[in-house]
Design goal:
This protein has 11 helices and 14 strands. It is an alpha/beta fold. It has a 6-stranded mixed beta sheet, with helices on both faces. Strands 2-1-4-5 form a 4-stranded antiparallel beta sheet, with helices on one face. The chain has a 4-stranded antiparallel beta sheet with strand order 12-13-11-14. Helix 4 packs across helix 5 and helix 5 runs parallel beside helix 6. The longest helix is centred in the middle third of the chain and has 18 residues. It is elongated, with a radius of gyration of 23 Å. Bound molecules: adenosine-5'-diphosphate (ADP) and magnesium ion. The site of magnesium ion has 4 residues, from helix 1.
């Protein structure tokens, strides 16, 4: 659907995007995560031609995007909706006018506009706010208006740049639910940029980790979280854990399944090793549940425990002492 190959972009001396390649498949929610300043917004802006790339290829549905004249660019942008952290609404206009704005630009008839505005307001859940001004709405409602506006021209792609970063956790959850719903019901492909792990975990199919203008790792969300590549660890880095100083601390990661449910007691039964369970928790990745556990194992038992886990194909690793 969206294919990016060896994309480069500099601002003066600052080389922001370095040979970025990635592919977003039709119908998926693809997450791009990274710390601030890594080049995520610049990548989105290159995709919708708000920035001009220096080199590389961007193609949508197999067609290279090499547009020069204004008319072609406007036609291209029509297929791509975009939402931002700070909503970018027209403050003097009411909600109805905000949603209608892109259709007015494209000279849709009043009747068409009216039908579409009401349909979209219903989808995003603000049908009772059409006559309000944005300032009278909560952050979540404002983002709903922005989403409706982004969908007005029936785009095939929705680009989201930190759309939930200004919202509280409860509202974030509701907006993410809405994006997921739009993806499933309308079949719109979503490329979503965020610095928040939770956003990736709850709605994305696949994720790419961006570091210093490069794609450091890319894969299915549950795979990336199971494998914990270094880039992801660096992103999670500041959660320093308090762990015992003696023995060996190991972290286990596995899918929560019927067989795995008694994994921890099974280790004891099979190996006779004694260890402390420092924690064990379940986390949801879209629809998949993954268990993370931290064990403190005696030095003399670590080999047995490691062998047992390897036989079961359970991912584990030693966590170094600080
Ligand atoms: N128009 C611009 N002119 C100059 N530098 C820019 C411009 N846009 C972004 N940058 C710089 O590019 C780098 C990446 O920015 P950005 O893509 O916004 O990162 P992110 O979205 O990951 O936080 C930053 O160092 C930023 O200051
Ligand atoms: Mg940004």
């Amino acid at each position: 659907m969206i294919r990016i190959e060896k994309l480069n972009k500099s601002f003066g001396e600052l080389h922001v995007l370095k040979d970025v390649s990635l592919e977003v498949k039709q119908g998926e929610i693809f997450g791009l995560i990274g710390k601030s300043g890594e080049g995520k917004s610049t990548l989105l802006r290159c995709i919708n031609l708000l920035e001009e790339k220096d080199s590389g290829v961007i193609s949508i549905k197999g067609r290279n995007v090499e547009l020069k004249n204004g008319r072609d660019i406007r036609k291209y942008r029509k297929k791509i909706g975009m939402i931002f952290q700070h909503f970018a609404l027209l403050e003097r206009q009411n909600v109805y006018k905000n949603i209608a704005a892109p259709m007015e630009c494209w000279k849709y008839s009043r009747k068409e506009i009216d039908v579409k505005v009401r349909e979209l307001a219903k989808i995003v859940g603000i049908e009772d706010k059409l006559l309000e001004k944005p300032r009278n709405l909560s952050g979540g409602q404002r983002q709903r208006v922005a989403i409706a506006r982004a969908l007005a021209l029936e785009p095939e792609i929705l680009l989201s740049d930190e759309a939930t970063s200004a919202l509280d956790p409860q509202t974030t959850k509701a907006i993410l639910g809405l994006l997921r719903d739009i993806n499933e019901r309308l079949g719109i492909t979503i490329l979503l940029v965020t610095h928040e792990m939770e956003v990736i975990r709850s709605i994305c199919h696949r994720v790419a980790v961006m570091e210093k203008g490069r794609i450091a790792d890319c894969g299915a969300v549950s795979e990336i979280f199971l494998n914990q590549p270094k880039s992801l660890k660096r992103l999670l880095g500041d959660e320093s854990e308090v762990l015992p100083e003696d023995g060996v601390n190991i972290r286990l990661l596995f899918k929560e399944t019927m067989e795995n449910r008694s994994l921890i007691p099974d280790i004891t039964t099979a190996t006779k090793a004694r260890f402390a369970v420092l924690y064990s928790r379940l986390e949801k990745f879209r629809d998949e549940v993954i268990c993370t556990a931290m064990l403190n194992v005696k030095q003399q038992d670590i080999e047995k425990v490691g062998d047992y886990l390897n036989d079961l194909n359970i991912k584990w690793e030693e966590v170094e002492h600080e």
